[in-house]
Design goal:
mainly alpha, Growth Hormone, Chain: A
Length: 409
């Protein structure tokens, strides 16, 4: 019992600190993206902004995971949070001096993401070091539930601040949140792995070791490949949400906030459901595919909505199911990695997963931006949904064929 109280105290202290920090970060990101929406009203501009948010994960992700495994993970987490605070402070000053050019906001969004490239795999990699293995998926569900609660509050706070505060003040909320997160991590003792002469290892050979973990697990490889292909079409939709609300449904920042809140409610329900039935979920990768299918179907349904008040209300309802689908897809998948990948390699494997899924966004935006600009946002939703559904069903048929006739990978 004492051991259970100890790991729960450590886990909840760090997780709550990170959730508080995320409130400020999500409020800031909401305000920056909405500022671009109001200023430009362009699908291409929003696509570029979203591209810069994800680009650091694509470029740095495979290498960041190696450093997470080489270094002590606690200092990595603290430094990443402090870096976020520093960047927010700098760009707060920029906004205080007047209206910055659009490229400055692009830089603000991109540079803030650099810290996340190191922060996300480090946080994910310490969970198996704090939590008993049989509790990992439940712990991930709790973490996701609390962080989604922050995403729930962030857009509301962002919309409220956007209406009354200058952007310079809004950015300072990111500074306060990062400092709280740093303090929570600093007071907790996190066990560290023995460093097995990593300084003598070749850096790129360690990157290859992370790739090898996917290649040697045939089913994990196929599920990851399907996820990447579907994300190639689905993830760019995130960049188009504000434009849908603004141009299709003639909404304001409060309507965008309502969309984000409903989306977060769905994520909370999805996380709570996974946590509640975590012990009954035996096939985590199959559950992940179910979540991906939900995202594909919702995308298709979005595209056929009427462009009126009823359509907007249905759009909000479907955003709820997007939130549910995301956590049904991600929590079991990450839990599978945490349970099956050696602890010494989890940083690079988890980071690599973030990179290979994020790489689908910039490539997807190359298609999504022009298609949405020429044919309309709703047309792109239909296109993305149909393609993703086809890819998932091809995977299902292929999996059934493998079961009937085993092949070597």
């Amino acid at each position: 019992m004492e051991e259970q109280v100890t790991w729960q105290r450590k886990f909840y202290t760090i997780t709550i600190g990170q959730a508080i920090s995320l409130i400020g970060s999500s409020a800031v990101q909401f305000a920056l993206v909405w500022w671009l929406t109001i200023e430009t009203g362009s699908a291409i501009v929003l696509s570029l902004a979203t591209l810069l948010i994800y680009l650091p994960y694509v470029v740095l992700g495979p290498f960041a995971g190696v450093w997470v495994d080489r270094l002590k993970r606690k200092p990595v987490i603290i430094f990443a949070d402090l870096f976020t605070a520093f960047v927010a402070l700098v760009f707060s000053v920029v906004f205080f001096f007047g209206k910055p050019p659009y490229w400055a906001v692009f830089i603000a969004l991109g540079v803030r993401s650099i810290a996340g490239v190191f922060h996300t795999p480090a946080i994910q990699a310490i969970i198996p070091m704090l939590v008993p293995q049989e509790q990992i998926m439940k712990a991930n569900s709790v973490k996701q539930f609390l962080q989604t609660g922050s995403l729930f509050l962030g857009p509301v706070m962002g919309a409220s601040m956007f209406a009354v505060w200058p952007m310079g003040f809004i950015l300072l909320t990111d500074v306060a949140g990062a400092l709280i997160a740093c303090s929570a991590v600093a007071i907790i003792k996190i066990p560290e792995l023995l460093q097995e002469q990593k300084e003598t290892s070749h850096f790129f050979s360690e990157v290859k070791e992370g790739i090898a973990e996917y290649l040697k697990n045939k089913r994990l490889f196929y599920v990851t490949l399907v996820t990447i292909i579907c994300f190639l079409f689905i993830l760019p939709e995130e960049a188009l949400y504000p434009l849908v609300v603004s141009n299709i449904f003639n909404g304001t920042e409060w309507h965008v906030s309502a969309v984000n809140v409903t989306f977060c409610l769905g994520m909370m329900v999805g996380a709570a459901g996974i946590g509640r039935f975590s012990k009954k979920i035996k096939n985590k990768l199959s559950m992940s595919m179910i979540g991906l299918l939900v995202l594909a179907v919702v995308s298709l349904l979005w595209g056929i909505l009427p462009h009126n008040t009823v359509g907007f209300l249905l759009f909000i309802v479907l955003c709820f199911f997007v939130g549910v689908g995301i956590n049904i897809n991600s929590i079991p998948y990450v839990s599978y990695l945490q349970e099956n990948i050696p602890p010494q390699k989890q940083g690079r494997v988890l980071s690599l997963y973030g990179s290979i899924t994020s790489i689908s966004l910039p490539f997807g935006l190359i298609i999504a931006g022009p298609v949405a600009e020429i044919f309309g946002v709703m047309f792109y939703f239909i296109f993305a949904g149909i393609v993703s559904i086809i890819v998932i069903f091809v995977y299902i048929i292929f999996t059934l064929m493998l079961k009937s006739k085993p092949t070597r990978f």
